[in-house]
Structure formats: structure tokens, C-alpha cells
Write a structure and sequence with these properties.
Helix 2 crosses helix 3. The protein starts with a strand and ends in a 5-residue tail after the last helix. It has a single domain, classed as Sugar-phosphate isomerase, RpiB/LacA/LacB (Ribose 5-phosphate Isomerase B, Chain: A). It is an alpha/beta fold. It has 6 helices and 5 strands. The protein is globular, with a radius of gyration of 14 Å. Strands 2-1-3-5-4 form a 5-stranded parallel beta sheet, sandwiched between helices. Helix content is 44%, strand content 16%.
Length: 147
């Protein structure tokens, strides 16, 4: 079965999202485009919450977001239990986010990476597995909330 990957962006990440949707299809994934559908100014939180909710509920194993810096999307997505959204600006950060943090949402800063860089980052993130081991304990602690 083909893996469905929800993907969304705000206006700043719209063009990059379009390129990533094409790349995901080329790699054999089924992107679920959750918007935005133009470069007109829009608010990022709704898009981040839509993708993160898919991951949180198990409707998708992982997702992809893009905005200008990646920061706003990551803040909103990381409000969801079990979501570990990582901003990656190069392939090494993407690899470590997967290996050490089991990042299940990739966030790309559209104003700081080229389309070619973003494709390399995406491929690295998709192809890298979580190492587990000592990192599993740390990842489990992320969702522990002090009462």
C-alpha cells in the first residue's frame, strides 16, 4: 500500500509545497495536499494543525509543512500529542531529526532553502530511520507532561 503523506503550506511555502507534491508522487508516495492553494496571504496555524492532526490520530504516519521560516508551522504542529515537527534547513539536520528524534513532521523554511535543497532534505528525511536505543527514552519523555 502506498504511504499517504499529508502536506500543507502557507503563502510563503506555497510554491515549494507544489514542488514537493510532485517529488512525493515521483518517489511513489501519495501526497494529500491540505492547502493553501495559492500564494495569497494566509494564516499558517490552520494548515499546521490539519497536518499534525492527521499524524496525531494515526491517519498518517508522517507529514510535511512549509512556511517562510518553518518556525510558525513547527510551533503549531508541536502542540499535538505525539507530533515531533522538525525544521530542517539541510539534509544533515533532516537525518538527525529522524535518527535521534523520530521526527514525524518535516518543516521546511521556504525562504531559506532552494527547491533543489528542499528536495534533497525531503529525500533524506523520507529515507532515514529512527535509531531507537537511548533515543527512544528521550523521545518518550517529550510527551510526558508535568501535572
Amino acid at each position: 500500500m502506498t504511504e499517504i503523506i499529508p502536506i500543507a503550506a502557507d503563502h510563503a511555502g506555497y510554491a515549494l509545497k507544489q514542488r514537493l507534491v510532485t517529488e512525493l508522487r515521483r518517489l511513489g508516495y501519495e501526497p494529500r495536499d491540505l492547502g493553501t492553494n495559492s500564494a495569497e496571504s494566509t494564516d499558517y496555524p490552520a494548515y499546521a494543525h490539519d497536518v499534525a492532526a492527521q499524524v496525531e490520530t494515526g491517519a498518517a504516519r508522517r507529514g510535511i509543512l512549509s512556511c517562510g521560516t518553518g518556525l510558525g508551522m513547527s510551533y503549531a504542529a508541536n502542540r499535538h500529542r505525539g507530533v515531533r515537527a522538525a525544521v530542517a534547513w539541510n539534509d544533515e539536520v533532516a537525518r538527525l531529526a529522524r535518527e535521534h528524534n523520530d521526527a514525524n513532521v518535516l518543516v521546511l523554511p521556504a525562504r531559506f532553502v532552494s527547491e533543489a535543497e528542499a528536495v534533497t532534505i525531503l529525500r533524506t528525511w523520507l529515507e532515514t530511520s529512527f535509531e531507537g536505543g537511548r533515543h527512544a527514552r528521550r523521545v518518550a519523555a517529550i510527551d510526558e507532561v508535568a501535572e
